[in-house]
Prior knowledge:
Strand content: 5-15%
Shape: elongated
Distance between the termini: 49 Å
Radius of gyration: 21 Å
Structural class: alpha+beta
Strand order of the largest sheet: 1-2
Amino acid sequence: MDQLSIKIRIADREYPMKVKPEDEENVRRAGKIINERIKSYREQFGIDDKQDLLAMVAFDSLVDKLQADGENANISEDVFKKVNELNELVSKAL
Length: 94
């Protein structure tokens, strides 16, 4: 499968990468979100050190992912329970 060569700018540094065409939009959006968070932390906390800003973005991004994973696990568990309830109802009806 063909891959695209793109460049993503994060914290004033350019990163060349190869991505699948179907992944390009998400990769570019991720770069944009990272830069927006860096700008927000810089303004909010007055921090100029890029390593500190990137560490804060990485930390917050992982916290967000862990929260989303927990929410997805709860949703999956709820769906599993509902499917079991429906299976029981169908079994009783037969």
